[in-house]
Amino acid sequence: MATVLKKESLYQLLFIACVAVPYFNIYEATFGIWTLTALITISNKYSLTIAKYIACFAAIFVIALVVGAFEDVKPYDFMRDVAYLVKPILGLLIGYQLCKDYIKNPLIILANAGIILGLVHLLLVGYSLGTKSIQNMHQLRENSGYFSDFEVYSVIILFFHRQLGLNISRKKIIIGSTILALSTIFYLSRTNFIQFGILFMALKGYFVINRRSVIVLSSTFLFMIVGYSIIYSYNPNIHASGIEAFLFKIKNAPIEPFKTHVSRENSNDFNDNYRSYENIYTVRQVTGKGPKAVLVGEGMGSSIDLKKKVWLQTSFMRYIPFLHNGFMTIFLKSGLLGVIILIYSISLLFKNKRSDNPTIQNINYMLVGTGIFLIISYWVFMGLYFTVDSKSIIIGFLIRYRENLVRAENKITS
């Protein structure tokens, strides 16, 4: 028993370390800790479900590896892409391997890790507001953090603790939910609000097609259209601060990643629609290199020429190896074949066997919600390939937890 408790504590510490390290935005550290954790927790057996999911990212990786091996690229650029493209595989393995069947309430680990991250974020927000001249939301986000998909999962788990079979005290639910809700709000991230809405509706069962879900989804869609129309009519100022700046981000959200023409000379057009600019030049460059590049991409070490230097996080760059759009990034590295495999990987999250066990079924709902959100996440923030993202760990964890519950149920009924 003591050995089991020691292992459980070790796995919890490893889990927290793996989800916390990406927030430092030092990918070398993330890659090192994730690789070490994946190796020391390696399992003897893996299910067909997780094997199929990992195989999708392995196939994308192999295509880029083989194509890049025949291209004239710098060794550093080649190895950098190897480390980046292996990230979803490492995350899935870590999540799957850390969720052991003898851990009584694995989802509490996710909730606790999120509360710790949320508390740290609120301390950063307080420190930034108290010691720095924060004039607008852009400065606040720059100093305290841009987003946290992990915290959204944690607050969802607390909100639906009964449906997920978690025995948590009311006091912890209130304190944890308050910390996570405030932290999520202070990120002022459009995608996090969308993520919360999608996961909330998923766990309510609204993505199961029936009369009730059609009414709810239709009403939600109508509400969004009306709300967006009001914001669009209000026409928030691009240079505003505070709430108005956030409203401008909402107004620009449906346009920003889908424009087919962006002017390099018009600074407002360029800055507001930069994601579209990346997409436009990726399509032009890859298609301009012929059918082979369109089919299998340009491989490891490839990059997109933006035709001008752009400030990206820490420096001005003209040639970028990865884009905001995950689909376009894979199109660059592994072509249409890679994009098709990536889309197929998302579809796997919808293929869950229905269960009469409410906990298992609600985990299925969470995976379905994750799949829907990934479509958006890949389009605006690279999805599972984003270097400061840990959703792949959560997915691997949820898949393994569902399998543990199914096995335990089968033992009882056999």
TrEMBL record:
Keywords for this entry? Membrane, Transmembrane, Transmembrane helix
Q: Where, by residue number, does the polypeptide cross the bilayer?
A: 12-38, 50-70, 82-99, 106-124, 144-161, 214-234, 327-350, 362-381
Q: Kindly provide the name given to this protein in its UniProt entry.
A: O-antigen ligase domain-containing protein
